[in-house]
Amino acid sequence: MTKRKIALFGGTFDPVHLGHTTVAEDAARRIGAEKIIFIPAKRSPLKGFLPKANDKHRHKMITLAIAEQETFEVSDCELKKPAPSYTLETVRQFQNEYGGGTLIHWLVGADSIDDLTYWHEIVELIDTCLLTTMYRAGCEPPDFTKYEPIWGPQRIEKLQQNVIPTPLVDISSTEIRERLAAGRGVTDMLNPSVAEYIRKHGLYGSKSTANGE
Ligand code: ATP
């Protein structure tokens, strides 16, 4: 019997942008996942700084960005726990919730490959879910062969089989934050509702347009 598939997409989403939604949608379609769940992290264990926008704002921006897409959801499960968020714990939580009949894909962008050896219990994570790597503009196509001596050929084959040639969308949250702080435009990079929310709340050094907020 074919198993159900869901895609989990973790990140700081500070803010969520059109790169995130475009590649996640494409990946989920190619995987055949029935839904994609965005999971904002309280903070990334590997980023040496805290998100600029608070948990509530980052969660709300995702809600706005995915409002039109029926198969997209957002979960606050990592925001409710003490930081930092560990992917393996989150995957296990969803596995318990969905049961053995569902395959769990954890989506990452190609830029994450170089960090993987620093991930908490990475070997366990590779064995527990389908770690699924998406192409990212500015990064080489994902290639895991350098990890074969430490993780072994079977894990490398599993990782390579779960590489998805998603469209290249050259957007990052860092660039958006920098542009906003410099008073420059970000319209093509964000869902319009997210851009409006950022302006309304004066996030990332943008000029607030809110009255009295
Ligand atoms: P920052 O610039 O703050 O590091 P980011 O744009 O990389 O942020 P994150 O929230 O850190 O966004 O990313 C969450 C996940 O989405 C990561 O796995 C990252 O690799 C992936 N990702 C982000 N932007 C893209 C993109 N344009 N194309 C493909 N994957 C992306």
Provide an overview of this structure:
There is one protein chain. This protein is α/β, with parallel strands linked by helices. It has two domains: about 170 residues, Rossmann fold (3-Layer(aba) Sandwich); about 40 residues, no CATH class. The protein is about 35% helix and about 15% strand. It contains eight helices and six strands; from the N terminus they run βαβαβαβαβααβαα. It has a six-stranded parallel sheet. Strand 1, helix 1 and strand 2 form a beta-alpha-beta unit. The longest helix is centred in the first third of the chain and has 14 residues. The chain is globular and about 55 Å long. The termini are far apart. The mean pLDDT is about 95. Adenosine-5'-triphosphate (ATP) binds next to helix 1, strand 4 and helix 7.
